[in-house]
């Protein structure tokens, strides 16, 4: 055999495109040439693979060796191709005695080789396992990646801890351990805190339920210590359970991130709370090899931005596009990657730098850090008052609805939305509002007057209608009535405050 072909998987965004690793050996001075747009870590694999092959007791061919990673126009990064390159070299030099019925074309290989031939994990094992399964091939991975890929159904994967174990399996000497799909029980969504822990704030709890049901973005404004962060942290506990498709998509994003994917968090909606010093790349994603940012790690989950005006304005403005589209495209000279970013934004801020002043010049300048277009994309603005000391000292009211009770109402309302239009109300396109969120003549006149008085934009009008539709769904009403419309407009009453600052 002068040419051998094996398969592996690259990483582009959250996808794992197929890579064909070809090895060709010919007479000539001993040399190894690696082609196919490899980056630094891939080029260094020549030395790792050579050491791993020799340490494992195999022979490294003293001839001219050419390794091609196809397709040639796709950048290759990381050490994920080490195992596939080693198998291709051993196959082309006849050191893998394949048994009858065994064919390298039925396998895909993923893993970094240590110098002694051991296998180390790489990022993005989950998308690679999904790709291999969909193409009816078996993926060979390090054991430490087994728990990550076991979350998918009908997984086709084997684990190997050493290069010799892979060769022994292909030679029919000792079978590798298969990975079994595991059905994990999802932990209590309110494990990080129950809404009944929050004393007082009945209007804020109501707003939180509306935001959860309709997937609406929410801005909480109030003095320090009013409970804004505490309320936001309890939002994941009342959100509807993730569907399997949502859980897989969120797990794929985590799998390709620097932190990796924790299988224990499969099916759990994330709560991402980056510090206000976060850069645009940290929030949106980026890098020479694009990786997901906080908005993608909060996909189908919650992104909490505390002290919103303290974020750099350019960073906040970068949120406008993903808030509308639900995805972010990161373009680099060598490649372009798209990451999903359908997150629910919960933001919190003080009304002024001092925390309590509202009408001072400093307070106006503080609020002016937020642009009008960004505020337009936040469906609900809610003022959070300080809870009195006497209320805080009172024991918890047993009649207060907890997260489980509110979650039942949210799930019922969300199911009504999905039955009616196939999506949460926050994602309704403007053309659907005339039918889904139709108003009576009197209510339409009432809304028009409010828009003129508050100087609200057309986008703000759409937000009001979507929130009103969600309120009607929560209250199990077939149509938006005056009460639902008034309540929805009450969640925009801070527009007057912001418009007075001159924000545009």
Helix content: 25-40%
Total domains: 3
Adjacency order of strands in the biggest sheet: 12-15-18-11-19
Low-confidence regions = none
Mean pLDDT figure? 88
CATH homologous superfamily grouping of the largest domain: P-loop containing nucleotide triphosphate hydrolases
Assign the CATH topology of the largest domain.
Answer: Rossmann fold
Total helical elements: 22
Radius of gyration: 28 Å
Strand content: 15-25%
Main sheet overview: 5 strands, parallel
Q: How far apart are the first and last residues' alpha carbons, in Å?
A: 69 Å
Oligomer: single chain
CATH class identity of the largest domain:
Alpha Beta
Description:
The protein has 504 residues and is α/β, with parallel strands linked by helices. The protein has 3 domains: 3-179, Ribosomal Protein S5, domain 2, CATH 3.30.230.10; 195-425, Rossmann fold; 428-503, no CATH class. The protein is built from 22 helices and 19 strands. A 5-stranded parallel sheet has the order 12-15-18-11-19. The longest helix is centred in the last third of the chain and has 19 residues, at 403-421. The model has no long low-confidence stretch (mean pLDDT 88).
């Amino acid at each position: 055999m002068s040419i051998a072909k094996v398969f592996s998987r690259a990483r582009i965004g959250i996808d794992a495109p197929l890579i064909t690793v070809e090895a060709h050996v010919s007479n000539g001075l001993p040399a190894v040439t690696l082609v196919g747009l490899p980056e630094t870590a891939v080029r260094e694999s020549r030395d790792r693979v050579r050491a791993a092959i020799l340490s494992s007791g195999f022979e490294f061919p003293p001839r001219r060796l050419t390794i091609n990673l196809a397709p040639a126009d796709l950048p290759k990064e990381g050490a994920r191709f080490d195992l596939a390159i080693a198998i291709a070299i051993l196959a082309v030099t006849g050191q893998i005695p394949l048994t009858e019925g065994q064919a390298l074309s039925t396998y895909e290989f993923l893993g970094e080789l240590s110098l002694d031939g051991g296998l180390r994990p790489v990022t993005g094992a989950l998308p690679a396992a999904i790709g291999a399964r969909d193409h009816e091939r078996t993926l060979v991975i390090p054991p430490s990646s087994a728990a990550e890929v076991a979350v998918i159904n009908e997984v086709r994967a084997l684990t190997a801890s050493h290069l010799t174990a892979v060769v022994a399996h292909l030679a029919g000497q000792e079978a590798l351990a298969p990975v079994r799909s595991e059905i994990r029980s999802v932990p209590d969504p309110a494990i990080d805190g129950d809404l009944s822990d929050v004393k007082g704030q009945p209007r804020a709890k109501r707003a939180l339920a509306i935001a959860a049901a309709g997937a609406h973005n929410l801005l909480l404004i109030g003095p320090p210590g009013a409970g804004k962060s505490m309320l936001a942290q309890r939002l994941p506990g009342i959100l509807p359970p993730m569907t399997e498709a949502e859980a897989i998509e969120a797990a794929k994003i985590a799998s390709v991130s620097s932190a990796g994917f924790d299988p224990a968090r499969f099916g759990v909606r994330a709560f991402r709370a980056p510090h206000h010093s976060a850069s645009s790349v940290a929030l949106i994603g980026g890098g020479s090899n694009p990786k997901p940012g906080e908005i993608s790690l909060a996909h189908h989950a919650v992104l909490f931005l505390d002290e919103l005006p303290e974020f750099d304005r350019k960073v906040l403005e970068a949120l406008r596009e993903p808030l509308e589209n639900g995805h972010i495209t990161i373009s680099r000279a060598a490649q372009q990657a798209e990451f999903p970013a359908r997150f629910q934004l919960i933001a919190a801020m003080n009304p002024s730098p001092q925390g309590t002043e509202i009408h001072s010049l400093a307070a106006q300048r503080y609020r002016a850090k937020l642009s009008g277009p960004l505020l337009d994309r936040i469906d609900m603005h809610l003022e959070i008052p300080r809870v009195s000391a006497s209320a805080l000292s009172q024991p918890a009211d047993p009649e207060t609805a907890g997260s489980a009770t509110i979650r039942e109402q949210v799930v019922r309302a969300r199911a009504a939305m999905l039955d009616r239009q196939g999506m949460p109300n926050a994602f309704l396109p403007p053309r659907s509002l005339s039918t889904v969120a139709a108003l009576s003549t009197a209510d339409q006149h009432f809304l028009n007057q409010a828009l003129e008085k508050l100087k609200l934009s057309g986008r703000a009008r759409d937000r009001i209608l979507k929130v009103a539709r969600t309120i009607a769904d929560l209250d199990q009403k077939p149509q938006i009535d005056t009460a639902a419309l008034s309540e929805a407009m009450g969640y925009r009453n801070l527009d007057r405050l912001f418009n007075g600052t001159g924000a545009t």
